[in-house]
Structure formats: structure tokens, C-alpha cells
Amino acid sequence: MERIQSLVKKYYNQILSLKNVVGVGCGYKEVDNTETDDEALVVLVEEKLDKDELESHELVPEQIENTDTDVVEVGELELLASRMERLRPAQPGVSIGHYRVSAGTFGAVVKDRQTKEPLILSNNHVLANLSTGHDDRAKKGDPILQPGQHDKGERDRDVIGHLERFSPLHRKTEPASSAVIQGVENLLNGVGDVVKFPYLIKFIRKNKTSNLVDCAVAKPVSEDVISDKILEIGKVEGIKQPKVGMGVVKSGRTSGRTESKIKAVHATVEVSITGNEKGVFNDQIITKPFSKPGDSGSLILDHDRSAVGLLFAGSEKSTVCNRISNVLDELKVEFI
């Protein structure tokens, strides 16, 4: 490699001046994605472009001093911020959460379909504290912290936005709320007090309503506190419908940038919402495992950076995501 290293020192200024080039180094030539034993001058580019997209003087030469070059795509190189610290502007992929929630992931920047204002996308259970929409767990205007509370986010200094709207999370069962049922409960509990019955009687009814999504958006305190570039991935380039076998990638607060493949689509799954409450979710995407607790809210993309889903649940054996088209329709938002 000494000869290659000398070429790097001799030509790095000229090579770095080429369009799209961000670096140069020593390596081995790859042919059809397979590494060979042939030494090469490796030219690092943000993005591989077709020859017809470049002028002749912008092309990386195939050889320099009879030494092969090899062009390798590395993306835009930047300093990597800690995902669990305060970051301004904050990028999707970092810690965020409702002020009463531990922490989840800032999924993406979207915009309201009517006002076109930018909004922060994540899960209900990250930004709206598992709210059903008719409880006291969350309400519009609640503070959203970046980083989340678990990562030492504080209300007096780390508010990045306020809860704007969310899709309610329906449980399989819920407390019966009619006046008649409450009257019967009071009567039975009154009798229980007289006979020293040591339990409180509460009627629970089955809920026939299932879920399609676990999602919410928050309005940032100002546009300059957020960036639409997903950490270690980049900007969203569009939307695609999920397909079995599709390769996907995400950027999450806990496990960072990880990749997987879709195992199933149009799935109906039962998910634990709290320790003793479960919910049913329809039209879900199931992937091979590539997430950990705290990654909830991560945007799922294909390798062309098209959005596919929104991560919200998982286990050591699989990850579960909402279909992104359902998320956008439910929240009435679109990508920037």
C-alpha cells in the first residue's frame, strides 16, 4: 500500500477538487460489489452519479499513474452528535419525548397539509403519553422535550415544541363509563364496605375499536430548532409502499442507524401498551429485529431514502411499524 499512499499524498488536492468528491484513500478494487486483491486508489464520493450527469473534467479518472481508482459512495460526512443529548437544531434520530414520558425518537420533519407549517413526527406513546384522547394523559399544547426526560431533558430549558395532535391509542378493554354502570358499581361497592369486602368492584367493557397507527406531531417553538436531515441517513426523498423482502433502514435514539428486511405486510398484531393493557393494530409492517427500547418513533425508509413506515413496537425477534401512508393521512401531514 506504500505506493498507493504516495499517490494519495501527491494527488489528494486535485482529486478533492472534483465535483461530489469528499475524500481519497488506500484500498482494494471492488468488482460487482466483491472485493478483489488488486490495490486501488479509493475515491470517496457523496453519491455515485452516472457519467452523463458529469462534465468530462469532473469525472474521476479510471487510472492514475497506471494505478486503478475505485469510486466508493460514503454520503455527506459530518460530525456525529450524541443522540441522547440536547441538539439544536435537532435532527430526526435523536431523543425526544412528552414531558411526562421517558424518551423516544424524533422520527421526521413533516408539514401540515393546510398551513404548510413544519411539525415534529413521532409516536403517540412518545409525544402524547399513550393518550386515548379522552383521558388526562396528554392534551394539545403540552411541552415536548429534546432530549427526553430519561436523557436528562428538563422543562425549564429543553422544550423544543408543543403537542399539536395525535391519533388516540385504543385498548382491548376500557372502564365502562355509562351512568347506569357507574351507579351499579357504587351500589355494589357500598355493600362491599358494609360486609368488609376487601376489593373494589369495577366493570370493564370490551373495546371493539382497533388501531391503525401510533402517531403524533408536535409544533416546534421555531423553525430553526429542527432540521429535516435524518441523522446518518439524510433527507426523505419520497414515499413507497412496503413489500415483503424490501431492505429498510432507520435512525433511532437507542440503536442508531440499523438495517433490516420486511418479513410481512398487512399484519394484524396484538401489542402490549402498558403492563396490563393491550391493543390491536391492523395493517402493520413486520421486519426482522433492528430496534431497541427508545427507538420508537423512528422513520423507516428504503435504501433510496423513501419513507415506508413508522416504528412503534418490537421484540428481540421482530420490529413492528405503521404503514407511513396511514400515518400521514391520520395526522393530515406530508413530507417537506
**DSSP strand (E) fraction?**
35-45%
Number of helices: 4
Domain count: 3
Main beta sheet: strand number and arrangement?
8 strands, antiparallel
CATH classification class of the largest domain: Mainly Beta
Based on the coordinates given, report the CATH architecture of the largest domain. Answer: Beta Barrel
The percentage helix is 10-25%
Radius of gyration (CA) equals 25 Å
Q: Could you please say which CATH topology of the largest domain applies here?
A: Thrombin, subunit H
**How far is the N terminus from the C terminus?**
45 Å
- Which descriptor suits the 3D outline? elongated
Total DSSP E strands: 21
User: What is the spatial order of strands in the main beta sheet?
Assistant: 6-5-9-10-13-8-7-21
How do you describe this structure in short?
This protein has 336 residues and is mainly β. 13% of the residues lie in helices and 38% in strands.
Which key features would you list for this structure?
336 residues, mainly beta, GMP Synthetase, Chain A, domain 3, Thrombin, subunit H, 3 domains, 6-stranded antiparallel beta barrel, 21 strands, 13% helix
How would you describe this structure to a colleague?
InterPro entries: Peptidase_S1_PA, Peptidase_S1_PA_chymotrypsin. Residues 132-155 are annotated as: Disordered. Residues 133-142 have a biased composition (Basic and acidic residues). This is Peptidase S7 domain-containing protein. By secondary structure, the protein is mostly beta strands. It folds into three domains: 2-73, GMP Synthetase, Chain A, domain 3, CATH 3.30.300; 95-169 and 210-335, Trypsin-like serine proteases (Thrombin, subunit H, Beta Barrel); 173-206, no CATH class. It is 13% helix and 38% strand. The protein is built from four helices and 21 strands. It has helices spanning 2-16, 124-127, 179-194, 324-331, and strands at 21-31, 34-45, 63-64, 67-73, 95-98, 104-105, 108-112, 118-122, 143-145, 159-166, 173-175, 204-206, 216-220, 238-239, 247-252, 256-272, 278-287, 299-302, 306-314, 319-323, 333-335. The chain has an eight-stranded antiparallel sheet. Strand 5 and strand 6 (104-105) form a beta hairpin. The longest helix has 16 residues, at 179-194. It is elongated and about 95 Å long.
